[in-house]
Amino acid sequence: MKNSELEFYRSSPLTDVLIPYFETGVRAGFPSPAEDYTDLKIDLNNELIRNKDATFFVKVKGKSMRDAGLNEGDILIIDRSLEPANGKIAVCYLDGGFTVKRIKIIKGVCWLMPENPDFEPIKVSPDNDFIVWGIVTYIIKSI
Fold this sequence. Notes:
Structural class: mainly beta
Number of strands: 10
Strand content: 35-45%
Order of helices and strands: EEEHEEEEEEE
CATH class of the domain at 6-13 and 51-140: Mainly Beta
CATH topology of the domain at 6-13 and 51-140: Umud Fragment, subunit A
Largest sheet: 8 strands, antiparallel
Low-confidence stretches: none
Radius of gyration: 18 Å
Distance between the termini: 26 Å
Helix content: under 10%
CATH superfamily of the domain at 6-13 and 51-140: Umud Fragment, subunit A
Strand order of the largest sheet: 1-4-5-10-6-7-8-9
C-alpha cells in the first residue's frame, strides 16, 4: 500500500532469514585477538517480529521525525497489536493519510509530535478521522 508519507509492506515470516551471527559481538574499541569462528545463524523474523499477523514494514518518507533517528528511506517495523501509549512512536491514520509521529497526551488531549523543529505538532480533536494504526518497534536503516 502506498501513501504520500509512507510505504507499507507486509511481513513474510514464512521464509527463513538466516544470517551468520557472531554471539561474542564485535568490539567498537581496540581489536581483540581472533576468537573462534562460530557457525551460528540468526533469524531476523524471530528476533524482530513478535506478532507475525500484526506486523508490517513501513518505509519512511519525509523529514518530520529526523531528530528521533527516523530518516528518509528507513524501514520501520510496526506492530499493530501493541497498545498506544504516551511517548511511543506510532504510525497514525489522520484525516485520509498516514503519518509517523510521537504520541503525547496532555490533559486528555492527544498530540502527534514531530521530532524536527521545522514541523508543527498536530492536535487531534474529536472532529478528526483518527486511529493509531500501529506502534514502531524497530528501525532498519542504511548507514
